Amino acid sequence: MISSKIFSTFRNMQRRHTTLREKGRRQATRGPAYMFNEKGTSLTPEEERFLDSAEYGNIPVVRKMLEESKTLNFNCVDYMGQNALQLAVGNEHLEVTELLLKKENLARVGDALLLAISKGYVRIVEAILNHPAFAQGQRLTLSPLEQELRDDDFYAYDEDGTRFSHDITPIILAAHCQEYEIVHILLLKGARIERPHDYFCKCNECTEKQRKDSFSHSRSRMNAYKGLASAAYLSLSSEDPVLTALELSNELARLANIETEFKVTLPLTTLQTDCPEGSSRCVQ
């Protein structure tokens, strides 16, 4: 039993080192040009044309290159560390996004979903959620941080490749942005915001997170409570939004005296104002 735990720990450490090595490799390939307004030197003319076509929504060119080119790396990134999928989503090009999603081994699908949610692009969100990666629904419940040890590029693990906190799940982000329709879609897919454990919880998970990075642990709790207290999530996820809002308001009032990290920058008590607002909107 002990030997299997040691082996599992060693394997996880090995996978983490591989992930960090791949991150450095991606940054090295991109080169220092991503800090300036020029294309990285590693991009071929074909890749530059492909990224430009995705960014500006040139559907015929993107389709032709994806279907005919034998040398195209459709996961290549520009000087800002964004691939074609992120560029297409960021500029609301639904047709280009759908073409890219048909490719196997497409990278940064998770980042593209978060980007579409943050911009409120409902149709693009629906298109991305039809990707095979979301078939089982597990990808919707895990944050980028929780998926860090996977061997794929579902999320970008470098500071310039993604703009979202690594503890943010799609439904938490949708709740933060008050995107009612997107929250509804994600709830139908089985996504939920898990209520954080008690602040004084001594389970192995909480103990390890506190020991490793107490600030990140508190930040993830704050993000979860912000999602739980949002009007969009309250009104769509609870059978009795008014009662849920009152219970959450009382819980936040108690935590305001405990979660000291955010008392100055973003007091927990400010979230209490969201709860009554959410419940009143439900009643209306």
From TrEMBL:
GO MF: inositol 1,4,5 trisphosphate binding; store-operated calcium channel activity
Pfam families tied to this protein: Ank, Ank_2, TRP_2
Keyword field: Calcium, Calcium channel, Calcium transport, Ion channel, Ion transport, Repeat, Transport
Boundaries of every Transient receptor ion channel domain copy: 201-263
GO process terms (BP): regulation of cytosolic calcium ion concentration; single fertilization
InterPro entries membership: Ankyrin_rpt (IPR002110), Ankyrin_rpt-contain_sf (IPR036770), TRP_dom (IPR013555), TRPC_channel (IPR002153)
Gene Ontology annotations for the cellular component aspect, listed alphabetically: cation channel complex; plasma membrane
Record bears the keyword 4Fe-4S: no
Protein name: Transient receptor ion channel domain-containing protein
